[in-house]
Amino acid sequence: MADLKTYTLEEVKEHTTSKSTWFVIDNFVYDVTEFLNEHPGGEEVLLEASGDDASEQFEDVGHSNDARELMVKYRIGVLDVEDQKKLKASKPQSESDTIGSASDRNSNPDSFGSNIIIPILVLAAVSFGLHFVYRWLQQTETSI
């Protein structure tokens, strides 16, 4: 990140055309001009997001890991610290900010255990019940 140039939000706002398309995602500045024609969602989506912080739109779409890796190619800088503070202050605090994003929860090993324990307990209870029903049916068959 030391090699990246620092840009202000005002500088980013100057690049909102198909000849120069910039936006900010997670405080990094991206120049996606060369990617406009290749974007699977169409160039209009990128042009609408240009010149501003597009972090929320990017996350809402649910981009793949491949898309995230491809982004590095278009990263040209980092947003000025003062503008980062302004953006953070202007955003309402969402539920995901207070309890962690979905990806944070899903990558947490502790949450995996709590997410899987209920189906395992249900499966165990059903198996236990079926075992006793089977044994009871066998017993009633032999006594007839």
From TrEMBL:
Q: Where is the composition biased (Polar residues)?
A: 91-107
Where in or outside the cell?
Answer: Membrane
The cross-references to Pfam families, in alphabetical order and at most eight, read: Cyt-b5
Superkingdom field? Eukaryota
Question: Its Gene Ontology molecular function terms?
Answer: heme binding; metal ion binding
- Describe the family membership recorded for this protein in Swiss-Prot or TrEMBL: Belongs to the cytochrome b5 family.
Please give the name of this protein. Cytochrome b5 heme-binding domain-containing protein
